[in-house]
Specification:
heterodimer, A: 128 residues, mainly beta, four-stranded antiparallel sheet, 57% strand, B: 104 residues, seven-stranded mixed sheet, three-stranded antiparallel sheet, 0% helix
Chain lengths: 128, 104
Amino acid sequence: QVQLQESGPGLVKPSQTLSLTCTFSGGYITSGPYYWSWIRQPAGKGLEWIGRLYTSGGSNYNPSLESRVTISLDTSKNQFSLKLRSVTAADTAVYYCARAYCAGDCYFGADYWYFDLWGRGTLVTVSS
Amino acid sequence: EIVLTQSPGTLSLSPGDRATLSCRASQSISSSSLAWYQQRPGQAPRLLFFRASRRATAIPDRFSGSGSGTDFTLTISRLEPEDFAVYYCQQFGTFGQGTKVEIK
């Protein structure tokens, strides 16, 4: 059974870097037309897409976060990671990793993509 | 940038009622690019529909999705207790703000 699992510190100090890892099990992270993504949700609020990475190369980020975000892939460990720099209290949220099925040209611009597999989420609090 | 606006914000209904949720795009979009998700309290979102009307695996047929252009609808024909949740539409990297379906 395929699944995703987030891991990382639950508490990060302001101005530091939030680092999370997502482990994909039950398959190979290099298989299929998928984007590997991060999404977050502050308490009581909606979903915010952070960014995505395509296993054949190429990443895209939410413009509102782009200057602070990096998503990377470790195919040897079947993992992908999120780094969010210079965090503030506004970055406190549940962070989800998710797989997005991509249709069309996934590298240059997909026709569409949707999140078909989600991790359970991990709460990250930014506080001193 | 396309904005997705969901309405109503909250829907108060009883088990057995019909629920109709709306997702409106700020400009016309391909129906292929519209997906719906359900999020129960304390859980991760779950894919309900992709390509606006294609039901995801294991989604009961009391759920249906429809729409085109700027207007899309998620309908639950008869609400079951487990259907009381928040529902989101999504297109590429944009989510609607969600509609909460609560017990009246």
